[in-house]
Amino acid sequence: MSSIDEKKSGETGACASDPAPLSGSVVASKPDMALQFLTDAKRDGVDTTSVDERKLRWKIDLRLMPILCTIYFLQYLDKTLLNYAAVMGIRKNLTPSQYSNLGTIFYVGYIVSEPITSYLMQRFPIGRYLGINVTCWGIVVACHAACNTYAPLMVIRVLLGVFEACVAPSLVLITGMWWTKPEQSRRTGLWYMQIGVAQIVGAAISYGFQHVNSTKIANWQILFLFMGCLTVLIGLATIVLLPDNPMSAGFLSRGEKVLAIEHVRKNQTGVENKTFKWSHVRELLFKDIQTWPLFFITILAMIDNGAVSNFSSIIISTFGFSNERTTIIQMPSGAVSIIATIFATYLVAAVGERALFVAIITIPSVLGAGLLLGLPAQLKVGKLFGVYLLNFCPAMLPIIYSWGAANTAGYTKRAMRNALTLVAFCIGNIIGPQMFQTKDAPNYKPAKIALIVTMSLVVVFAVGLRQLMLWENARRDKALDKIVRESVEDFEFLDMTDIENKEFRYSH
Description:
CATH superfamily: MFS general substrate transporter like domains
Number of domains: 1
Strand content: under 5%
CATH topology: Growth Hormone, Chain: A
Oligomer: single chain
Protein name: Major facilitator superfamily domain-containing protein
Helix content: 55-70%
Strand order of the largest sheet: 1-2
Shape: globular
Low-confidence stretches: 1-28
Mean pLDDT: 84
Order of helices and strands: EHHHHHHHHHHHHHHHHHHHHE
Radius of gyration: 24 Å
């Protein structure tokens, strides 16, 4: 293996500092858990020649992807049940501002717990930690049925945000453990695509429960009870079935585990490390040039997501449709989300131009907001298409997830990158619902103008970040030509960060 220098370049470039040489201190720092596993396997002469790698990839996909997809499906559906309950009668007990606050307070719980849950998922077995959280939020979803006034609903929405905060960062870390960078983009797209599936299924379930009549319990309460119990069952199954990492995967032989780890060696991001390293956090916040552009791209894009998640049913209902028809009409939004996610993630895996696809996928949503703003009230079909087009912009989130994972080495840094991305996600989703003020109903003109502006800024930031990555890669190529390189075995599993590893090149 190659990499590494004793001679520090005197050049300055896009980064706040040059990549550090692979000094003895870096080598001596606690390496990735996979390194010890590979060392033991080599010592014991583990045979990998009999393992069919193609069958192994399918074996891993068929075991992990159904679990990851189901969890992401439930986390989106469960948090947006409030959107369906809005047309089922829950808003009768709430003022318009209180309903907006319920959409916002979920993300307050989410954002406060995000750094804590990211730390805990590094310290504890990630599969079991995720399963416990799924079980807990299932219980919280069921408890919504007992809350029909503002105060208890606020409390229960905070708790839902706390327990759901681990989902996206856990799934990003798990995806990075098992698949290469191009594969990560496709797998991330598959589990993120469940947002669209959840929109379709959620609308169908809501429509069905609207025809359930009971004198003792409202149909929206039955909806929350049903989904809560289903989520608890999936959480318990996750605890049993989801492995914590390739080294502990009971469904793989020892030789298969070795090949699974070797498969992701070229990522140069390692597999898992249980030692929390504050140096990685400092590097993320103060030295990494991509940190804050990605942060603001996520905020700006998720403002649109917050609007779609909490107000799409209300916007559609202003077109004059009945509650039942409003629910059914939301189903194509899920189809748009699925198509946009497939388009984004599979083309990114093939072409690799993440920044450009972030910009491209935002443009339809800008057009959608323009249709809602500019079309007269009588053109309901055109306005409805505007609502559907708004679902393109949130589909960039899997690109952001995979972009951060591909460009971040060092386990603690990856975990904290995910936490920071989710903090930005929460901020955007907090802002989104608050733009729809009661005084602006039913047209919500200021909110629609704000959506056009924020999504246009996403395009500008994405193109700018792409150029920064190109400059940094060119600077590293130039610097590497001037240094003395020495061989260090298994440097990919030394838990170096992308700034410490001079061989690392950024995806753009």
